[in-house]
Specification:
Layout lengths: L1 E12 L4 E8 L5 E5 L2 H11 L9 H11 L3 E11 L2 E10 L2 E7 L1 H11 L3 E4 H27 L3 H4 L5
Helix pairs in contact: 1-3, 2-3
Length: 161
């Protein structure tokens, strides 16, 4: 099953200095962060801010080609998360025939913004993302606990109790 989401924001991950697109469920509290490339983040940001460029950017070109071929984009769906890589499909229709095209989520999101179509995420992706996030948080907490346990008096410095 798919859940509709909206782009909640675009931010920089301070740990990796990589852009992150944050998707939020329309009917629920689920949040899905997707790390993207700088150029894709720029394409998404330009459209969010409605900034016009002097010449068409790649995703504008794609929109123009699809419109010229009378192809209607129905939706984009983030379909999978495997080995820390997200996958997406763009669902399109031409002359009554439905087609799906494999895409990076960042490109699918940039296109969705330009054609004003809904964005969805598969339940399994949201659930797996939560499991991965929880596992990462547990691992981080465990690493912190071990580090604190192994501190000696010199490491504590002037803050000894």
């Amino acid at each position: 099953m798919e859940r509709e989401v909206k782009i909640r924001g675009l931010m920089m991950d301070p740990a990796t200095n990589t852009p992150v697109v944050v998707l939020k469920e329309m009917q629920g509290a689920g949040i899905l962060p997707i790390w993207v490339g700088i150029f894709e983040a720029n394409a998404i940001a330009l459209e969010i801010e409605k900034i016009q460029t002097p010449r068409p950017m790649t995703h504008d070109l794609l929109r123009n080609v699809l419109m010229g071929m009378q192809v209607m984009v129905h939706k984009v769906v983030v379909t999978n998360l495997r080995e820390d890589t997200f996958y997406a499909l763009i669902w399109m229709e031409r002359e009554g025939q439905m087609m799906q095209v494999d895409s990076r989520p960042s490109d699918a999101l940039a296109l969705a913004l330009r054609v004003d179509c809904p964005i969805f995420v598969e339940d399994e992706v949201l659930n797996n993302s939560r499991v991965v996030s929880a596992a990462a948080e547990r691992a981080t907490n465990e690493e912190l606990r071990k580090w604190l346990e192994n501190l000696n008096d010199e490491d504590m410095g002037r803050y000894k109790m």
